[in-house]
Amino acid sequence: MDFIKANLLTIITFTPLIGMALVLLTPQQRTRLIQWGSIAFSLIPLGLALFMWAGYDITQAGFQFRQQAVWFPQVNASYHVGVDGISMPLIVLTTFLQPLALLMSLRIERGVKAFFALFFLLETAVLGCFVALDLLLFFLFYEISLVPMYFLIAQWGGQNRRYASFKFILYTMFASLGMLLAIQVIGIASGSFDLLYLFSDLGRPFTGNNTINALFEDANTWKSVAFFAFTIAFALKVPIWPLHTWLPDAHTEAPTGGSMILAGILLKLGGYGFLRMVIPLFPDAAAQFAPLLALLALLSIVLGAFAAWGQNDFKKLVAYSSVNHMGFVAMGVAAAAVMAADATRHTDAVIAASGATLQMVTHGLSSAAMFALVGVVYERAHTRDLTQFGGLWSIMPIYGAILIFCSMGSLGLPGLSGFVSEFMVVRGAWPALTPYVILAMAGLLVTGIYILKSLQKVLHGPLGEAWRHHPLPDIHWTETLAVAPLMVMMLALGVYPLLALNVINVGALDIFRLLP
After folding, report:
1. Considering only CA atoms, which of 295, 255, 1 is closest in space to residue 115?
2. What is the pTM of this model?
3. CA separation (Å) from 175 to 139, 180, 325?
4. pLDDT for 457-508, tens place per residue?
5. In contact, 339 and 355? CB cutoff 8 Å
6. CB neighbours of 332 closer than 8 A, spacing ≥ 6?
7. Residues in CB range of 66: below 8 A, 6 or more apart
């Protein structure tokens, strides 16, 4: 037990690779063993993550469960991992969604072994991003996370999967190049990639002796280069308008399980990067450009909602809703950044940062549920065209009830988790970004419209002509099992948000404690 506690983060991060190895060693023809064995094994990282959550001390500031070892001494990079209140809920969310996404992938028939193995590789890569306390280590895991998602889209996606997967890898690799440049510049300036050292007065990059004068006379030029490289990379990952165009194609063409992980987890790397790196390392620049980020967040909220309203493809509607909802994460980040330098406004800044983190969690739950439910109806109808549905509640009543509940969760109905997180972002951002918050309310209005449109088109009205003589079977028990835990957590966090906020608030406070 002492060994597990001392190495808990490493065990959680790399346990999925054992699952990947077991899948690869299983004969290809043992399809059911691969599928159900993978689902069962994916519960191990979840159990370990919950064990870590139970052992997290909310009275202790800073990173916990830390582990550090020599890794790349030639450039002063180390294997350094740890968690705080920002990364902890995202780790639990990642391990929570993995078995549910695998449950929704039971209908995969081609290349089952490779499909499930890639899911385990993706889980390790994402967990590595959330636990890394070394910039070079973070970049390594970040890059690895792109590979399995690319192949999941390219090999098991829809008709335009080649285009969507190429666009996904092109956009994200472009962002990665800028991030690598920023990491290199920081490493040269401070002589280390260790985040805890970089947060300290001695190691803070581009201050004191930690500067670079190469190529540019003004030492602050490299600081600006690093700031914008990080900002663009994470803005593209969120994604924030107008860097969002890769997302609808990737979501629409990805298999159902892939869409659940892409929306539920991978997008959160952008918001996490802002809170973990951009604000603590560049507080002045973040505060200076926060109004611009708030404007882009506002446009993401409003234009994302209008774009979702205009869709007749059910899956593309849900994809654009992610742009809309993740805009609130960006708004919370902008509010936290603009108020970070003012100690008298730290309470509002903490509320905004906590709201942004909780919004990442709640969106992960609701978006995964919605993509799963789109996949359920697509597997039966072989179309996502909303104009061809109608009246499905009469033949799929259980599916209809679940769809309404999850749609209300996505809408932000009071009593469900989405309401709490969006309210916190609005409350935290109000003192510093009042005009942006007021205008963002238009996005909430349109959110209600596109959610009600999708429900009306799918469930209500006369039954579609195609389904009158060939009724669609109701949701299967395995699909219900995949969505039910998401519904439970949406309700639990909506009724008792302190379940997560006790931990998140500690991490949000630490962000501003680290500032100079």
Report:
1. 255
2. 0.92
3. 11, 9, 22
4. 888 878 777 777 777 888 889 989 999 999 999 999 999 999 999 999 988 8
5. no
6. 352, 353, 355, 356, 357, 359, 424, 425, 428, 429
7. 9, 80, 81, 82, 133
